[in-house]
Amino acid sequence: MELKGKIAVITGGASGIGLALAIRFIAEGATVVISDINGPALKEKASEIGATPIVTDVTKEEQVQALVEESTRLFGRIDLFVSNAGVAKYGDPFSAERDWDFSWHVNLMSQVYAAKYVLPQMIARGDGYLLNTASAAGLVVEFHSALYSTTKHAAVGFAEWLAASYKDAGVKVSVLCPGGVKTPMAAELPNMMKEAIDPADLADTVVKAIAKEQFMISTHEHIWQIFQMKAQDYDKYISLLGERRAYMLGLGEK
């Protein structure tokens, strides 16, 4: 997909990856709607970059539906929907159910809701694009949070299902699985920040991948290599995780 002349909607668009994508999409000639739960920040950034702001709590199905409907009312259609909103809430099997539920709804169900309400118009046109942000934590284990890693794995699985199910309907799907990115979400993880890339560089990678209609968009070669090992030799992968865990948690050398 070439972005010039396209209508794009981006959730989580007030900061980080979402904002970087919005800036780059606009530079490519797209009309962009950004949504976020943080209304003041959303409206400020939208004014700065020339996007349309729509405040949305993506954990609420009715608000995601309203985002799709209002964007369509304003611009006639949605060519590209970017389900980018995410949360890195720390937790483990002992975390409260409400914490699991919140992570589940932000990192996965928001993408389910978006697909539910934007797919009908795309299928009717025989054309459309879904870009779902997951994470490298959806490919290999992320040790800081079982909540984050588990829900991001689920997001990758959902994107795979969408891509296979709607390919013949003319709907393209990409899943974004970056490693460390210099965003507020990753700022408290010093070892991740050592290998983090700039959001603008990530946006450049995304634009190139969308132009090729590439399903998997990854950013860090070593993570992709670990993922490939996982597919080839799960026991070796599990053994490697112990070493990787110590490094990522700051307990030892890489």
Commentary on this structure:
The chain is α/β, with parallel strands linked by helices and 254 residues long. It has one domain: 3-Layer(aba) Sandwich (Rossmann fold). Helix content is 52%, strand content 14%. The chain contains nine helices and seven strands. The protein has helices at 16-27, 39-49, 61-75, 97-125, 146-166, 190-194, 199-211, 221-232, 234-248; strands at residues 7-11, 31-36, 52-55, 80-83, 128-133, 171-177, 216-218. It has a seven-stranded parallel beta sheet, sandwiched between helices. Helix 3 runs parallel beside helix 4, helix 4 (97-125) runs parallel beside helix 5 (146-166) and helix 8 (221-232) runs antiparallel to helix 9 (234-248). It is globular and about 50 Å long. The model has no long low-confidence stretch (mean pLDDT 91).
Number of domains: 1
Q: Output the strand order for the largest sheet.
A: 3-2-1-4-5-6-7
Helix fraction? 40-55%
How many β-strand runs? 7
Could you describe the largest sheet, including whether it forms a barrel?
Answer: 7 strands, parallel
Q: Helical region count?
A: 9
**In sequence order, what are the helices and strands, one letter per element?**
EHEHEHEHEHEHHEHH
- What's the overall average pLDDT, rounded? 91
CATH fold-level assignment: Rossmann fold
* Percentage beta strand: 5-15%
Task: Note the topology.
Layout: E1 7-11, H1 16-27, E2 31-36, H2 39-49, E3 52-55, H3 61-75, E4 80-83, H4 97-125, E5 128-133, H5 146-166, E6 171-177, H6 190-194, H7 199-211, E7 216-218, H8 221-232, H9 234-248
Parallel strand pairs: 1-2, 1-4, 2-3, 4-5, 5-6, 6-7
